[in-house]
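FORM 7B: Structural annotation worksheet

SECTION A. Query
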Amino acid sequence: MAMEAVVSTSLSGIMSSLVKLVVNEWCVEKTMKDELTNLYDELMNMDAFLEDVSSVPPDQLESQVKLRAREVRELSHAIGTHLHSFMARIESTKGALLPSVSKVNIQQEMDRYVKEIMKKVEKVSKRYGPYPCKSALESTSSLEVSTRMFATDTRESNHVGLEGAIAELTKKLSKSDHVSIVGMGGMGKTTLARAVYDKMKGDFDCGAFVTIGQRADMKRVLMYIFHGLHMEIYGHEPDQHQLTNQLQSFLVDKRCLIVIDDIWDKETWNFVELVFKGCAGIKIITTTRNRNIVKGVGVTVYTMKPLSPADSKELLRTKAQVKSHDAEFDTLSDQVLCKCGGVPIAITMIGVLLAEHQSKEWHGVYDSIGFDEHKEDGAFQHIRKVLSYSYYALPYNIKRCFLYLSLFPEDHWIEKNMLIWRWVAEGLVPEGSFEIGETYFEELMDRCMIQWAVSPHDPSQGGCRVHILMLRVIRDLSSSENFSTVLGLGMKQESISRTIPIHRLAIHEGEAMVGRSQNSRLLEVREVLSLYASTCPGSSLPPLREFENLRVMDLERCDLSLRDSNLEQLGRLKVLKYVGLVGIHMAELPRRIGRLKLLEILDVTATGIRELPPFVEELRKLRCLRAGKGTRMMGRVGMLTCLEELWLHSADKSPDFAAELQKLCEMRVLVIHLDEVDEGMQKKLVVSLHKLRKLQVLQVWSDAEEKARLGGRDWEGSVPSSQLRQLLLLGIILPRPMPWIHHSRVPKLSKLVLQVETLEVQHVQILGQMPSLRSLCLHIHCYGNRLLYTAGKHEFMVLAYLYVTNIELICGEGALPRIQELEVGGIRVGTDVGLRGNMPLLERVSYHLDCWGCSPVEVINAEEELKQASQAHPNSPVLTIKRWDGVDVCSIPFQVIIKMQQVM
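SECTION B. Predicted structure
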């Protein structure tokens, strides 16, 4: 059994894997098997208890339960660390001809440790008694949980900054029977829904505004709707089915506006859909924090956005009741709004507090209201309650992945894949599966707990950011569970209790000096599993040899010029699985990294390393390898048969790279840059790609367009993996689109960039039938080869972003129903592009007018026609017009790739 196959997120899972590993590898006595089985049962109980506790807010737990949870959590961590260490040692003996005495020693050590663990577990059980069931954990007085901390304010003063959203939502509701407002807690979803309801309810025969919240009782929801509609209930205590029938009968001939506020789960959503099914005159507004609930159900979605700086300031001014220019307010407002991040509930709460005091007292009020997550009271604790409900509703495994975000600095861009690999390396994802980790990331996105963002430096990389208020919540939750410790940015090491073990350590900007005094360690790092350091000098880091159980080491843009010897200690960290050295300037890769036989992830992007030495091919468990511009691999990449993800610049300089690639059968993500491309090399590359049947993402970048054109036909005959989701070929000039780009061959394809010499109508029609295509860049390389195409109904049904050049694209009725941004290069002057009334979700449109051979008057008239068409469009999309003479058609703009990656 491979090491990566036995990684588990739970104690019982680790124990189960360990038992199987020991029994399969060695013959152990029955007594030891029984002891291992008993310990496994106890650890299952501990896991279940911690999972139950994690779903209940601390203020709803009894004091004894909190104490027990803290003790069990620390014991769980200690046990998990040592079990993982045992597994690593046993794994290292597989295939080795060890003396029998060595195996006996390990067995004896394990036997002693199992007995020691049992004593500790039994001690905790004896102190507290049997583990309580989940229903007994919660205080009986707190069973009804409501996310509505404050009554909805219907006054116009509460609509500051929402005027545009109110108008847009009203417009959407006029075209759709069901609009769902999606966004993070505290963003003003309820306020917006209430404002639109109040504005429109006079146009309907009846209406109701119902808030559900967590633990929705369907019969009670129906009763609330009856009350809102002023309906009389017939029968003695009618059941849910009877109430539904009465409601549907009442609404059969009425126009009705219903708001269902704060839906948390799919079951409740399905109930709402069922109740109002067949009611032709009804309009529904729903609000939710979970985007996944509304996926694929055919409703119109409105996503809440943070308030702009100007609107934020105006809302704060309104709530603080500042009626004229006030120097004290102007000075303080920037400090307040920086902490609020455009979230209305935070701005409102601070403004109300300021309104209760004179302006000369405001700075004192601000200092006392508690935006510090470590304070026990103040504004932050109220906001924390609103936002933390999303955390307690998460599945148990995802909770720990969410808390991992506490390690990163404020407003930090976090790359998606490398975040997931960190989770995998530390054992937070079942079975070490990247695909499962990816579903966790998507779940956090869907629940609006993180926001999708593209790298500010590299458009090929997508990731996320965490809202400043949500990060404070994460840090607070993480601190309460002793999940992580963050030093720097004002938090000094003296604030860290030396009696509590550190499990994950982050050091930001080197403000906290961590190290060793002459007689004692300032911080005990022996139990640390993850070390993250950002922009720190080498003097801020402790000696790496002290991190005996370290699994993840991520030193991002740290200055190690005076401490290169510290990296030479890496070879001692036997259980290290993740090494990130992004942005660290170094001449060469430390040789002792070659000793890390369990290493799975190595990222040396932007390091200045010119060569990945041959010893890298000895890291046979590598699953992810990233090297940036200027770094070439000297060893044979085909030796790394466990690789799932490879980012390699100057890949053509690696020994026989194109042929070696076919040996990497586990490959899912391949991003390569080719300096030189000849016809023979391109043929080998295509043959190898054909054999990668798990490939999901393929990006090939080349600067040698003319040479790449020679082998363009080779791409036509090789059919790739049916799992392919992204295909970006930049600098590879194809004669025409490959025939295998078809919904029957690559049904999951969502992002596509092609540069072709010729394009025909049937090629575009085939692309229009791709069921998952969300962003498309289609570039005809030759100016003279122009195509006129009218997109028809049922084509490009899910496409959100489209960029085409040398294609006169006309939007027919019903085409591009989900397009949000459209860029068309090469539209002839005078062409009716079909902008009026079509593309209902269009937000931005850009046309590059082909002005060749046209008079200035003709060009001006054409621009005016496009402006009128844009203004007549129901969405009034932002229009950009550029005059184009066909000269700048040789390459795809960098900005296009950024926009494509912004589409989820």
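SECTION C. Observations
The chain has 27 helices and 29 strands. The chain has a mean pLDDT of 83.

SECTION D. Sign-off
Analyst initials: ____
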